[in-house]
Amino acid sequence: MSRLVPVLALLLCLLAGCAPFSGPIPRETPPPSVFVQHSPSQGDFTYSIDTGAATKSVYFAFTNPDTRVPAASIPSVSGTDALASKGLDWTTDSIPLPAKSAIAATPTRVSEFNRDPFSRTGSTARLRKSLDLTGSPPPPPMPNDIPNVSTEIMYDTLPNGVPYPFDATCRGVSGVVDIGGGKTRTLNIWVQDWCWTSTLGHTKAHYVDQTMVNALQAAFLASGVFNDIYDWVTAMIGSEWGPHPYADLIQPNDEITILLCDIEDDNSDNGGVIGFFWAKDNFKDGSIYQPNPGLPNYFPYHSHERIMFYIDAVMLANPSPAGYWADQVVSTLAHEFQHMINFYQKIVVAGAGQGPDTWINEMCSQAVEDLVADKLGIMGPRGVDGNLGAAGPQNNSEGRIPLFNAFDSVSLSNWGGSGLLQSYSASYAFGAYLTRNFGGAGLIRAMVQSPRTGAEQIVDSVSAIAGRQESLGDLLQKWSLAVLLSDRSDAPAGYQYNTGDFIVSSVGSASYSLGSINFFNYQQKGTTGKTGPRLYSGNGLVGNTRPLPASGLLYLAGLSLTGKHAWSIDLPEGVSLSVVVK
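Below the sequence we write its predicted structure tokens.
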């Protein structure tokens, strides 16, 4: 390969609070406190820098922007400053993951259905659409749920996808709540009977009571203006259901249901699936089918014909640690509400026909959790007190970031390929970067309401807000550098996680705040005594796997350097090199 020598004359350098820097850094004065570079070089080349008398540390980020395939090979770095003797050279990508996690994932069968629900309609029950809304049937009558009186057989599924029925009773009805604009909503909360009190053969670790039901109802839908999850999330991204011209979908009746049950019948009170939205219930019963793993034929999904959530009752009722699981459930409601709204806004209203790629849908849901955490007064996925705008305590083990720190090179787009929880942590980290740099709540609204379903919805929405064209590769490179700069509050615009305070955005008259993030404050989950993002170092290959689709590798090139330094780099085709000097 040809040997190219990028010098600082090619540098695109951004200074916090200043115009972009270009051209060589003057040798007679110290270089700026922070600068970044996106190198145009490919193949074999030498990267060199001269900091003069200023003491600097140098970091590389290797980014694969392709959302489908890994890079052709593994990048490599060598040089006298490659920290071969600093004890930082890691030789494995295998970090043990705790057996249980407090923040669990949506079942794959649910996320796959929500991604492409209309492919599950039978040959005699195909989706039918008319462009004329005037012919839509009138809304059905309200279910007339009555607390402690109304009973029904409801369904969840086992981990293998086989449905199982159980008796449930309505335990709470909000009454008709004015949501503004002449519209109303009613919230109904149902509880699996086995989870309300002990039943012969169905003893649970914990039981739901009326106090819990009332608290959940108040958090999701309460009388008043802009004071609950329903108000905050719909003001941000739109309504969860409404008129439509589809014959196979249920018509709106202005009601939402929360079903509290022992999800997957596992009696787990300290990890597992906390909750989910399953779009099958938006369909008319009998119109959708799934393969039966034991038969060559099909059997119908059961639809409750309700706009509804499933929440794990056993975890909600777990009193230890104090308030923890109640907060997790409330945050999960905001998360799942995004999925519910996304289904209506993107598939039905915008006419996309399918849902977004799973990694983008989950990213949006975690961003919504993040955007309402301060309003709820809970940690949310950031893992910091929602009332605190600053980046939070050191050695933090809460939220999604500790797992991201341990697995910061997993693929965004290959959902679950490195483990579901790892995928959630990476999608949160990327979404947290996007919202803190490109419009916050407005960005999520634009993505949810976009008719696009792939990475184009991110690129188009960001580019419109930024006022310049961005590519996914651009955003992935900036994201990696923003992680490395998160310990500073003077990072350049477009590379910020941490301003030292809340980052505020708005949609119309609704305002939303995002707390600052410093990745170096968080532990690496599953390791002992390690904090901060996982950094490769040493001479030779950067890691032991090719850069995964839509991912980045972070590399520490040199600590506390002065004067001239150089590194020999072998960059695989399609992989980009970005540099932070700080």
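The longest helix spans residues 324-349.
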